[in-house]
Amino acid sequence: MLYRREIDGLRALAVIPVILFHAEIEAFSGGFVGVDIFFVISGYLITSIIIGDQEKGRFSILKFYERRARRIMPVLFFVILCCLPFAWAWMLPMQMENFGRSIIAVCLFVSNFLFWQETGYFAAAAEEQPLLHTWSLAVEEQYYVIFPLVIMLCWRFGRTALVAIIAVVALLSLLLAQYGSIHFASANFYLPTTRAWELLAGSLAAFALSGRTQKPNDILSLAGLALIVFSIFAYDELTPFPSFYALPPVIGAVLIILFGAQGTLVARLLSTRAMVGIGLISYSTYLWHQPLFAFARIRSLTEPTTAVFLTLAAASLVLAYFSWRFVETPFRTGRMTALSSAPRVLAATAIGAALFIGIGLAATRDDGLEFRLPQEARKALAEKQAHDPAMDTCLFDKGERNIQHPVRACLTAHSTGSKTILIGDSHAGAIAGEALRQFDRANLDLYAMSHSACVGFSGFYVSDRKYRNRCNSFFTGIEDYIRTSGVDTVIMLDRWSLYIDGGGFDNGEGGVEELTPIYADLLENESEAADRFDEARKARVLDRYLRDIAAYLDTGTKVVLVYPIPEAGWNVPDVVAKAAMAGATDPIFSTSADLYRQRNATVTAAFDALEHPNLYRVKPAAFFCDTVVKQRCVNNQGYDRIYYIDSNHPSNAGAALIVPAILQAVEASRGATDGNSPAAASQAR
Which InterPro entries match (predicted)? Predict the structure, then answer.
C-alpha cells in the first residue's frame, strides 16, 4: 500500500494527547481518546495490507504474524527490560507482585484482562503500573489474531458480503459498548468486544478506499479534525467510555483517513516534519511514557509536579527516537540476518516471551521479593498486616443480626457484660482492640461492636452493593441489644462525612484514597436512588444523624460522640516504607489541617450545635492536628510510630492517641473522681 504522510501525522495527533493526559495536564482531560484513534489507524492499515495481499493471492497468515511480531515485540521487550532495574530498586512488594503479573500478561497478550480485574484505568493505583498502557496493545494483538482468520474464511463470499459482516459486527460492538458503559464500566473499558468497533471502523475505511482513488475533501477532513480536537478538550474521566461518546474521535479519524488526502489543509497540517517525525516514533513514544510517569510516581514521596511530568514527556520522545532507530527499525526491516525468516522470528518471540514470563513469575515470589527492602521499610509495611485481632472478631461485614450478645472476645477481659458499648463502622473496629485494653486496665467494662461500611444506626442503606442493606439488619440487632441489656453509655464512631459526601479522601499532595464512592441514604428513600451529589440526600442523612443521637440522649442514655478521625489519603505504611527505601531518617508525613476541617465542616458544625447534659464529645483532630507539625495532621512519627494501617484506619498507635480521651469521657459520664476527671469533663462537654 502507498505511504501516507498524513497517517503518521494522525498518529502524532493520537499519541501527544495521551501523554499529556497521563501527565495530568488539565486542558487535555480527554486525551485518552488518542488510544481510540490508534485503534482506527490500526484497523485501517492492517485491513489495507490484508486486502492487498488477498487480491494478489499471496496472503500468508504466517507472514502476517511475522510482520506483527517484528513491529511490536522487540521494542516492547526492550522497554520491559529497561524497567526491571528500577522495579527492583524502587517498587514496594505489592507493586512488584503486580508488575510481575503484568509482565506475564503482556507476554501472553492478555494484559487488558489483567488490568480489568485489578484496577480501573482512571484509579490512583493504576498510575503506578508501568505497563498499564499495554492493555491497548493486548486489544490490538487479539484483533490481529482473529481478524485475518475471519477475512480468510469470509473472502470467498465476496467483498459486499464481507463488508456487511464487518459492519454488523461493528454495530453490535458499539451497542454493547454503550450498554456496558452503564452496566459494567470497567470491563467495558478493557475488553476487545467493546473496542472491536473502533478497529473495525478503520477496517471499513480500508474497504472504502480499496481499489479507489482517494477523494480529497477539505470540509469533511476538517470536520474530522474538529471532532478529534473537541473530544480531547471536552471529555474527562467522568465521560462514559467507550460508548456513543467515542463516536466523535472515531468518526473524526475515519474522516481524515477517507478525505484528508494530500492537498487538503488537514493533510498539510498533519504532514509537517514535526508531526510526521513524532508519528514515526509514536509506538516507541507510547511504550516509554507510562513507565517514566509510573516510576516517577513510585519514586516520589508526593505527586510529581507538572514540570517533572513535562520533562518526562520530552524524555519519552528522546528515548523513543533511539529505540525506534536502534531497536524498532532494524527488527522491522529485517536487517537482523539471524531473524531472516518467519519461523525464526516467531521462535525468537516465543523464547523472549518465555524468558520474561519467568522473570514475571520470579517477581511474584517471596511477597514481591520483599528481601530487597531495608529493615525499616519492612517494619513499616508490617503495620498493614498488624491490625488488632479485635478487627477480625468485633468488626462484622455480613449484616449479622442474630448475634448471641455479648460476644466474649469483644468484651474487656475482666467482664461478663458491659453497660458501655462502642458502635460504628470500621473506624470503630480499628480502635476496638486498643479501647478494650485501656478500659480493662482502668477496670471499666466495654463492649465493642462494629460493621464495615455502615453508619452506626438502623434505618440507613449504603450505595455499595455488597453492604447495601446489611447495615440496617446489623444495627437493628445492636439497637435491640442496647435496649434490652441495660447499656447506659454508647460510644459512637463513624466516618461521618464519608457517608454524606461519598468520596474517598484526596489530600491534595498525591495521596488519593482508593475507594469506590460509597454514600448513605435513608431506607425510606431507597426507591429514589439519589446519587452521591444529591444535596437533599446529604441534608436528610445529616438530619437523621442528629435525630438518632438525640433519640439515645432523650431516653437517658449517655452518648460519647467521637468526631471524624483525620484521614491520610495515601497509604501511610507504604509512604513510610518508600521513605526508608530513599534513605530518609525519621520521616514524618502529614496532611493539611485546613483540608481536614473543610472536609468535615458540615458534620463538625452540626455536632457542635448539639446540646445535652448526657452528651460528651471527643475530637480526634486535637491529637493528630497542630501537634507535631503546625497546621498539619500527623500520619506518623519516624519508623516507630505509624498511626494508620492504610489511608484512613488508625493503627494501634493511632488508636492510642484517641482512646484515652474516650476513656476519660466515659469516666466523666460516670462521675469518676480521679485526677483526670475534671479535665475530661471539661473537654468532653
Answer: Acyl_transf_3_dom, Acyltransferase_3, SGNH
